Amino acid sequence: MVRIPKQRTGPRAWLVGLALGFTVLCVGLSLWLRAEPPASPPPPHEPQAPRVVAPEPPAPTRPVRGAPTASPDAPPPTLGSTMAEAPREGVDLYRPGTKPLKQGLVVPEDFELPPGYVRHYQATDDGERVRPILMFHPDYKPLDSRGEPVELPSNRVVPPEMAPPGLPLDVLELPSGPEGVEPIP
Q: Does some domain include residue 115?
């Protein structure tokens, strides 16, 4: 008599069957959800008299928080006049004139900058490049002769009295435009 040992299917065959069943169930569910509902038959046509519907009055608008409210006898606002008063959000953050150009000392391209200084390149809203100005590097923390930290301007633009030796003190003349100017402090 020859005895053939029975192979155990064990939990592996059960897991494979469960995974296959789950996959089939997911595919069926996704097909069912993607299917469009059947078109309902059109309602029976009954001739009716035309109804006259009065137009609804416009819904009251909610005022913007912090925006001034106009009095009833005030003239209507002009186009764009209320945008300057309303808070800027979304795309309005990037309208022309939202970032003023910095005015500072012009840095010639051939001037070698000492450590702690950088050239700051700018452009107008029309894409016109202006000459680079001298700024302090964000990580630069200068010390005076006693080892005390020197206070830098908040916008990091180098004022003429803090310019490195040898730099011509030529202040950038900015082109006219809606950008505005952030002057030297």
A: yes
For residues 132 and 109, what is the distance between their CA atoms, to the nearest angstrom? 8
Residue 83 maps to a domain: no
Q: Which residue has the tokens 């950008």?
A: 179
Q: Does 183 fall in a domain? A: yes
Determine the structural domain holding residue 179 and report its residue range.
102-185
Q: How many domains does the chain have?
A: 1
Q: What is the pLDDT of residue 49?
A: 58
What would the pLDDT profile of 130-144 be if each residue is shown by its tens digit?
Answer: 999 999 999 999 888
- With 0-12 CB in 10 A as exposed, 13-18 as middle and 19+ as buried, what is 75? exposed
Gyration radius (Cα) of the chain, Å: 36
Task: Convert the pLDDT of each residue in 90-125 to its tens digit.
Answer: 766 666 666 788 999 999 999 999 999 999 999 888
